[in-house]
Amino acid sequence: MTTSLTAPAVPGPVTDRRLTLISLVLVLGALTTLLDTTIVNIALDHLHHTFHESVARTQWVATAYLLAFVSVIPVSGWVSERLGARTAWIVAVATFMVGSLLCGLAWSLPSLVVFRVLQGVGGGLVLPVTITILTRAAGRERIGRAIATIGLIGQLAPILGPIIGGSIVQSVSWHWLFFVNIPICLAALVLGPLFLPSAPAQRGSRFDVLGFVLLTPAVALIAYGVSRLTGDHGFAATDVWLPLGTGGALLVGFVASALRNRTHALVDVRVFARRSFGLSSVITFVGGFSMYALMFLLPLFYQQVRGASVLHTGLLLIPQGLGTMLFIVLSRRLTAKLDGRLVVGGGVVLLMLGIVPFALAGVDGHSVLLLVAQFVQGVGMGAASLPVMTLAFASLSHDETPRGSAAFSIVQRVGAPFGVTVVAVVLEHFLASAGSPAAAAGAFGATFWWVLGLSAVPLVLAAFLRRASR
Known about the structure:
Blueprint: H1 16-41, H2 44-50, H3 55-58, H4 60-83, H5 85-104, H6 109-138, H7 143-171, H8 176-179, H9 181-195, H10 209-227, H11 238-260, H12 275-286, H13 291-305, H14 310-316, H15 318-337, H16 340-360, H17 367-394, H18 401-431, H19 437-454, H20 456-462, H21 465-469
């Protein structure tokens, strides 16, 4: 007689009030991990002087976190199943908090880099597990509301990060760049067991060792290669093409392995063959060349062309976040009444319209127009991204959610920096011959035109969303 592992029962429906409480608790964990990236990145120059280290060595404070963050995402689905999603989330937040404490106590640059790895491991687990808990609790009928919560977190991080990071560096000590996470994490750890739904652990869930050996270094190598693209030789540099090529080969090997391993693959690659999930993933990946690239360019434009301080730049970016928040407020009515492809396509058009004033901007003047343009960009970003994520996760069953969330998170975490880095290379090309402030403004203007052109790709793909949702 053989015994088979029975899938856990799908929990009963969650009330609207309970879903709101679950969302608020999850926000505490996810927001601090996303904020940490922008808070610390804005202070790299300060850390470079504090530790009397080279810029290249100091950059590892950001690179170590990024590599650890993306490396752990592939195992997040298995961890959610093995421990139960709530327990996995609590472990992830606790790991991030311990890493934050140790980073704040670091006595040298090497010790800080090591502790950033621990912090990245916790941070990389938090977001995909957050998506798993939230989408399961919301169910198919309210999944748009759940995705809106995640989208709001993503928009707040790049806006609040420079403000908080700049304030800490200017008025307190660099140690508080990390200590600031601790009270938020403590609140999350206290509230998590009280409000998050429990999920039974699947003790028989087998770990895909071969998949781990192939996928984890593949993602880390690709992320590292992308991070080195802004060097002097671009793709021709050995530390770019070698990790990218090796990572790509390992990724192909993992896909072949996962297709053979039908039940226990580390990440379920078959969900990409589903038109709704696959198309949403492609749109999210190419969004790195437009939406995420724009988030990268705007702070640099204000600081290098307009001469704004770090804190002032953070304040100038607020209209973009307000635009996205407005869309989130209106999204229930819009997505219920309008064809999804019209919402996404209209969002991309608004994003493109918001780019034009920056492409035409000079060293000074038209400040109000630029702020209005950012607000329009924010509305467009919300409309172009949130329905796409909703479509992706609505196509997943209850049991597919953990490993599907890991798959989508990998696309996000690789696609966003890849697109941003390519745009950064374009910007450096134009800046190389810019010997005056006016020429620098022209270099940024040319780069904004590139982003405008690249935005046409998700606009074309949006036309297929309706067909994909059927």
